[in-house]
Amino acid sequence: MDSTPAHMDLSDTLARARRVLKLEAEGLDAMAAALDDSFVRAVDILEKVEGRIIVTGMGKSGHIAHKIAATLASTGKPAMFIHPGEASHGDLGMIGDKDGILAFTNSGSTAELGDVVAYSRRFKLPLVLVTSNAGGEFVEQADVTLVLPAAEEACFIGMAPTTSTTMMMALGDTLAVVLMERVGFTMDDYKQRHPGGQLGRRLLKVSDLMHAGDAMPVARPDQTMADVLPEMTAKSLGCVGIVGADGKLSGIVTDGDLRRHMGDDLLRRKVADIMSKSPRTIRPTALASEAVAVMNEMKITALFVAEKGGRAVGLIHIHDCLRAGVV
């Protein structure tokens, strides 16, 4: 059954939807063009915060503040959201003397934020304000104010916060990303903060899963196969790496190599006569997903891990990757 109201056909609905997106995109373009040294000063202030960045806001601005606090915390700047109403009833005590405050308020005069602003001034805590109103009551109190440029709300009656909240969210993300770069946040840092779920699995490195030290099956090229077979059997990884005195990997003996050289004299033969030379390796800092791709491409089940220069430091097996959920 067609649920489209009689006064709004399909083309009209799509036209209205595209108008919303166009207005919000125009707001973002206007905000990008309006960025000035106030933004740089805001980043400078937030970067120097030694404690946490306390992010706050009321209503729709509060929802945005909550999200920006989470983004900051996961990208290198400790942060937390405090509800301004709860702050007035004891949660101001959560704010430490080394913290800074990032406040979102469309009007710049949100009554519930008054106690947070006053607290920041009393204890000389840095305060960055994001608002749509340059004449707001709190603008003069803030150390720096980021004013969103005038933009038409996408709501057809011009009342519901739409374009303005999109701009506010994007500006918060911009602060977080620039701070992320300023503090030198790395992929390793990001992985440590996102250990669970699909994201955590995608960020696993070869070094997180590889068999290293005594768990790595290795032998010397001058040994006989009689010496090497117990090592292969004990480690149960289907291969053994052949390394010299310098620790560099020169070859590999696999179950397939054993089958190809099967004969009465196999156990008496030198490893160097049996091994496959110049085996493919992968660096320990590579993502585990890259190791899976290499193993699939070469139709192998294990891959030795070598540092720059060729020194073997581990072995990663396809089963290790599958158990960790890396595909």
User: In CATH's first tier, which class of the largest domain applies?
Assistant: Alpha Beta
CATH homologous superfamily identity of the largest domain: Glucose-6-phosphate isomerase like protein, domain 1
Portion of residues within helices: 40-55%
Task: Strand order, main sheet: write it out.
Answer: 2-1-3-4-5
Biggest beta sheet attributes = 5 strands, parallel
Please provide the count of β strands: 12
- What is the mean pLDDT? 90
Unreliable stretches covering 5 or more consecutive residues: none
The CATH architecture of the largest domain would be 3-Layer(aba) Sandwich
Topology as H/E string? HHEHEHEHEEHHHHEHEEHHEEHEEH
End-to-end span in angstroms?
42 Å
- The count of helical stretches stands at 14
Task: Write down the domain tally.
Answer: 2
Rg result? 30 Å
| Overall 3D form | elongated
Structural class: alpha/beta
CATH topology of the largest domain: Rossmann fold
Proportion of residues in β-strands: 15-25%
